[in-house]
Structure to design on (426 residues):
């Protein structure tokens, strides 16, 4: 392939993805707007008109931010590539550092810092304007600054050694560097599944053991019925950042634990919390986390293999506006260019990934209905949707591309069917 042909292909992919995303955003906004005036019939008795309209307005506001984010990301991608931004940064750093490991690490750190500076204004707007407007933001500017500083320090303390390891494998393991680098990346990913919940997450949030004895007994009984165990049940102070509520399993092996947002416990009844936990246990029962991890590892292996091929093609660099160093390593350039281009390819797999995730959610709901009362999970979903201002009327095509969870109506209809089928005959 010639550099010109690859440039044309890159532009075509960028236009196709950007136009499709803009079209999906437009469909979502139109669909939600048309349904704003009236609560869907299935929710007449459970969702108020004011709550429905708040969810619609919140969705439309996020949609507008998404449109700005799309335009910004498209512009930044063009600036880094065809307009010469990455090449200029690389050439400038080559004047400061000799070609080698230090220069490559500096290139990736510089790229990351500039990207963060570009993203921060929109991030601040989302947190302190949009989320604040709808009553979700609980974070102070001081906390945001401290979170940002801690994230940067963690990026240096943990990220730089890992980055050094990746670049070392790329440079020292021969023509199959992509395979050895993938093995290294996989091992690090597995280690982080243990390290993050035990040592990194507590740097940002407080995790206290669950103190509600009645809830602890209910949770223990449920997990024994389902044949599960964990290292403990914890409550996270999510309310200091957001009013959104959630619960999740985290960790791997001995580090596995159950975490409840304090906002969730303050909103749901014991029966509803138990039903939400049963849903999460359903993911473990069906081995969804293992399946997703396996798919991620497979896709990453294919990605590293593709990167191994592209790293030897001069047109990959010059076609994206970058002059490779013919006398030195180009591993950092390969990483950065590949990470910028690959989303244009993987975007088209989004409907398949989202469909698989929604199927897993249905399976977890069914598992919860087997071990708890399905009506309790329905009640919990209704409360969480209202509290999180989740729209009840998403556009079907937007759902196909972006929704990892089924729309509320589909989940509740299935749960109601399960509840009726499990009810004793009269």
């Amino acid at each position: 392939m010639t550099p010109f042909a690859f440039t044309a292909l890159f532009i075509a992919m960028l236009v196709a993805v950007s136009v499709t995303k803009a079209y999906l955003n437009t469909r979502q906004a139109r669909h939600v707007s048309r349904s704003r005036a009236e609560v869907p019939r299935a929710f007449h008795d459970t969702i108020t008109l004011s709550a429905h309209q708040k969810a619609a307005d919140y969705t439309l506001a996020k949609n507008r931010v998404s449109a700005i984010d799309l335009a910004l990301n498209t512009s930044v991608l063009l600036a880094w590539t065809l307009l010469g931004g990455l090449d200029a940064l690389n050439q400038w750093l080559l004047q400061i550092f000799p070609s080698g490991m230090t220069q490559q690490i500096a290139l990736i750190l510089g790229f990351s810092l500039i990207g963060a500076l570009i993203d921060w204004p929109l991030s601040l707007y989302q947190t302190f304007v949009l989320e604040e407007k709808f009553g979700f933001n609980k974070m102070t500017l001081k906390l945001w600054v401290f979170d940002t500083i801690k994230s940067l320090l963690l990026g240096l303390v943990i990220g730089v050694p890992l980055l050094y390891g990746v670049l070392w494998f790329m440079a020292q393991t021969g023509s199959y560097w992509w395979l050895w680098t993938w093995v290294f990346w996989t091992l690090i990913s597995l280690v982080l599944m243990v390290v993050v919940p035990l040592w990194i997450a507590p740097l940002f949030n407080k995790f206290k053991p669950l103190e509600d004895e009645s809830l602890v007994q209910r949770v223990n009984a449920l997990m024994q019925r389902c044949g599960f165990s964990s290292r403990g049940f914890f409550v996270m102070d999510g309310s200091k950042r957001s009013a959104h509520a959630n619960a999740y399993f985290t960790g791997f092996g001995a580090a596995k634990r159950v975490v409840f947002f304090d906002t969730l416990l303050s909103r749901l009844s014991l029966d509803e919390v138990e039903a939400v936990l049963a849903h999460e246990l359903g993911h473990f029962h069906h081995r969804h986390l293992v399946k997703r991890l396996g798919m991620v590892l497979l896709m990453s292996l294919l990605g590293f293999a593709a990167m191994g091929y592209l790293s030897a093609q001069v047109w990959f660099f010059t076609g994206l506006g970058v002059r490779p160093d013919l006398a030195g390593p180009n591993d950092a350039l390969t990483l950065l260019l590949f990470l910028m281009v690959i989303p244009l390819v993987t975007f088209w797999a989004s409907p398949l990934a989202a469909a698989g995730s929604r199927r897993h959610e249905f399976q977890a709901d069914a598992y919860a209905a087997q071990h708890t009362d399905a009506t309790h999970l329905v009640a919990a979903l209704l409360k969480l949707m209202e509290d999180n201002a989740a729209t009840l009327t998403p556009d079907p095509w937007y759902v196909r591309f972006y929704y990892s969870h089924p729309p509320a109506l589909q989940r509740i209809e299935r749960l109601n069917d399960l509840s009726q089928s499990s009810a004793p005959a009269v």
Q: What stands out?
A: Strands lie at 207-209, 233-236, 247-250, 257-261.
